[in-house]
Amino acid sequence: MKKKLLSALLCVAMVASLVVGCGGKEETAEAPAAAEESASEEATGATFKIGGIGPSTGGAAIYGQAVKNAAEIAVAEINEAGGINGYPVEFIWGDDEHDAEKSVNAYNSLKDQGMQMLLGTVTSTPCIAVADEAAADNMFLLTPSGSAVDCVANDNAFRVCFSDPNQGAASAQYIGENGLATKVAVIYDSSDVYSSGIYETFAAEATNQPFEIVAAEAFTADNKTDFSVQVQKAKDAGADLVFLPIYYQEVALILNEASKQAYAPVFFGCDGVDGLLSVEGFDTALAEGVMLLTPFVADEDNEATQNFVAKYEEQFGGVPNQFAADAYDGMYAIKAAAEKVGLTPDMSISDMCEAMKVAMTEISIDGLTGDITWSADGEPTKDPKAMVIKDGAYTAM
Amino acid sequence: MIVMKKMKLDKNLKSSLITYGMVIAAYIVMQTLVMTDNISSLMEGLFVPLCIYSIMAVSLNLTVGILGELSLGHAGFMCIGAFAGAFFSKCMNGAMPDGIRFVCAILIGAVVAALFGFLIGIPVLRLKGDYLAIVTLGFGEIIKNLVNVFYVGRDANGFHFSMKDAMSLGMEADGEVIIKGAQGITKTPQDSTFTIGVILLLIALFIVLNFINSRSGRAVMAIRDNRIAAESIGINITKYKLMAFSISAGLAGVAGVLYAHNLTTLTALPKNFGYNQSIMILVYVVLGGIGNIRGSVIAAVALTLLPELMRSLQDYRMLIYAVVLIGAMLFTWAPKAKEFREKYSPKRLLALKKAQKEAK
What we know:
Chain A is α/β, with parallel strands linked by helices.
């Protein structure tokens, strides 16, 4: 009986804590509503609230952190220069742990905090889920790095990075046009949306190109530490180029394995390979001659890039990756589009979205990841830069 | 004897009614808040996940609490249900009325997951304790990885299936790839609502509570408490074990369907259908009380809400969440904490006061 009573008590305590929790939340929910009201009354004190969503905890945290940091740098710069149309910008961040459900929660939470536009989400799968929620609210969404096709399926959504199909096809065309190889092997992560997405279009485009895919070896997120089999198969198939539509951590392992097996083809990667040279304990001599198609490299000799990299290193430590660059460009794209149509913070979310949708197709920004313009379907147009690693540094080809 | 039996029955019924009442009351309160527009979008978005995890916790409690077997692959069944339901919805979208399609999807998800539960249960339930935990854990991971290599498409010629990549489906130009390997199923119709979630939770509770109080349920508990004794009085061990395990899997499948129709994207990531998710659900069960169905619901709701309500703490929230989790576990299960609670329980204090008064 005692136990019963005790459990009942615990139940009451838990329920009570819940109610208290709910109560607390409601108050904060009302706060932005009140803030909005006062904002419409006196527009002078208003700010643009731009939300960001991405994994700042968990396994994919490095991508989310990069975007968060870069967006903060951009916001600080914009505010210093007088804000957007004279209104300061506030950046609010929500963590999604790289999970679609948590991402939608983060989206709702940011909405409660008064978010007006969204720079996110960082990773593809959560982005698809959030994009549909945003479409229902008609909120403007610009994803810095959600590369899956469905991320921008709705007309309120745009992206800064290349789409996966775009990268795959561009890589195949580049290899074909420059006659880099006749026999190509592909090593990709079949459990990863980014990697399998690129591989699919690469393989589709390869049929139109003067090379053939002699080996397509997959690995999954659960066994990505030993690549001896995949490298051996590529070697046995006589491939003179290995295409790696994967992230740099695995690329480093593959390069190590290839050097062990005395196999020296040309290695060709996508934007995920950026970061290879900063892998700890990796002999950068092995990366000599690795080619990659990427919109951004941190050591590019360009004032804007150098400026950004220096700021990033100073404030957060470490070299920014392409996610950071995409987020930085994304924030400036929002600024450019908002200035184009004279957006003010007292507009409703839906009105803002309608205006931004049109403005995005009219602007062109000269960003860290190249000159970007957007089409109405949300896809960016920019030139991928072909880079090769020479003497331990990225050099344009 | 008869009187005692009647009392016992009433007690069970009362306890069940309290559980249903609790869910219904929470539903009414929340609906009122929604109607009067007094609730944050965050809470509104959390309603369906709360129902999903409550159903998961209730169903796992059937395996862990009533059957007494430790299963670490419960998210695997959820995954099966989710993909079966979403696949059906994707194929039949537009071909039948939305409501009927969703009900069918739920039934299909439940049946497919229960079938897998049955098939896996046959070899697995011969094992005991740690071995069972290891095999179910492995099963969950296998399901997740299998789903990640499935490519299923549909065109004028019917269905195409591949385990390699989307190109090898060999589809005609107008075909649609429904399950795209790692990219999963996208654009599932969003049918899950709070009302449906609560109805499903009530059904799950009804099934589990009635099962526990039924003849079969008592047989299952007899097996849990003493397998040899149960066998010696003629209880068919395999039958009852499989029955409980399949029901548990089927209900997890229902939760999966609800999950799949809540978000427009469905992928089998370690985060949502992996080992960690299974452990998380086990945490709900353990914290709510093993064998205590009502406790499972409360724990699932509390622990799902907690990290979301701590969003204002930014990145520290997961740290604090972990500390709270450890604290709660210690509070409920540590012997010293139990002693402490008993010493200061209001009931005992009241009794003490009474005794003091009487002494005066």
